[in-house]
Structures are given as structure tokens and as C-alpha cells.
Amino acid sequence: EAQVTQNPRYLITVTGKKLTVTCSQNMNHEYMSWYRQDPGLGLRQIYYSMNVEVTDKGDVPEGYKVSRKEKRNFPLILESPSPNQTSLYFCASSLLGGGDTDTQYFGPGTRLTVL
Amino acid sequence: GQNIDQPTEMTATEGAIVQINCTYQTSGFNGLFWYQQHAGEAPTFLSYNVLDGLEEKGRFSSFLSRSKGYSYLLLKELQMKDSASYLCAVRSRDNYGQNFVFGPGTRLSVLP
Q1: Are B96 and A45 in contact (CB < 8 Å)?
Q2: Does A52 touch chain B (CB under 8 A)?
Q3: In the prediction, which pLDDT does A1 show?
Q4: pLDDT higher than 90, residue B54
Q5: Which bin fits B57, alpha (ψ -120 to 50), beta or left (φ > 0)?
Q6: What contacts B4, CB < 8 A, 6 or more positions away?
Q7: Which of B42, B96, B97 is the closest to A106 by Cβ?
């Protein structure tokens, strides 16, 4: 089954404790992206990757890191989480064909709470 | 910068037609997507426009006017299960890559 998986689905942590949210897709997609979703603000892009070893900042990259060492995986790293990073996080992937095949497929979401 | 606007909330009656508008300002426009998102779930793809005009997909249609920076999603024969948030997203492409900017979403409530 074609899908995007994220782990963990729920996480409660404390300020300053490094964490990683994993994302994996099995559709051989070139493009992968991380978003956070907050009430009233919608989905905001954190980082994206056009292919292996190619990453770039989205609209809200501060406080986050990513890596793309393999095509299927795109982990999101919070080196020193802070309470303002409490949010719902989505990973997404897509092809880069240029048309409607570029629609993004979203993972189930990770609800992160930083105390 | 990039900016996308949508109405925050809309209400409609089962069986009716509703139009959800989206206005955007962006550089390097390379497509507009509509997604549906039920509460607590991931967004799912509904429609895509890159050229001006209307795209129809069953009960859903989407329109784009690039010169006006305007799109709408039309939902016909509304059903209770259409109660959800509808997200407008613009893809932009430049020499460095491509990114997506989402609007704040429109929460649609379908009443019996």
C-alpha cells in the first residue's frame, strides 16, 4: 500500500531535550516536505527536499533541522525544543513531474507537546 | 512574499451547492491545489489547476484565474460527510526549488 508513515504519532517532551520525528514513504517520490499546523495559521512549510542530499528552507525553518540521506526517509530534528514548537506536524511526499501528479501525499501527523 | 486568503468558516445545507474562494499573491506560480482535511486527520488531495479555467471531478470542481490570483472550489450536492476544512495551496517554483504555501483553510459545516 502506497503511504507516508510518521513516528511517533504523539509525543510529550520537555524543553531542551533533543528529539527526532521520522518520516518514510514507499512511493519512490523525489519531493518530501515537513509542515506544522497551528489553529488559525494553517499548514506552514518548515523544510523541503527535492531529492537525496538536497534540502531547503520553507517558511518557518527556525529551530528545526532535516536530512535526506536516502530517498525514502526525511527525518525532522528538533535539537532544543521549546514550547512554541508545540504543534501538529505533517510529513508529505510527491513526485516532481510538474503536473497534477505532483500532489502531495500526507502522513498521519505527529502531535508534539513541549512542556 | 506569498499570501493566500480564504474565508475562515462557511455553512451550507445538505444537497446544496457551496463555493469556497481563495485569493493568492505569489511569484513563480506553478499550480494551485485544493485539499480536504477532516478534523484530526491528514489533508487529502481534491483538485489541481495550473491553467485558467474549470476542472471538474464528480461533485467537485475547481476554477483558476491566474491574472486575478483567484481560485474557487465548488462542491455540489453537499453531503454531511463534506463537513471538513478545505485548504487552498499554491506551488511556486524558482531556480532553487519549489515550495508550497497553504491558505489558513475554510471550515465548512454541512447542516441537515
Answers
A1: no
A2: no
A3: 80
A4: yes
A5: beta
A6: B22, B23, B24, B25, B26, B88, B89, B90, B101, B102, B103, B104
A7: B42
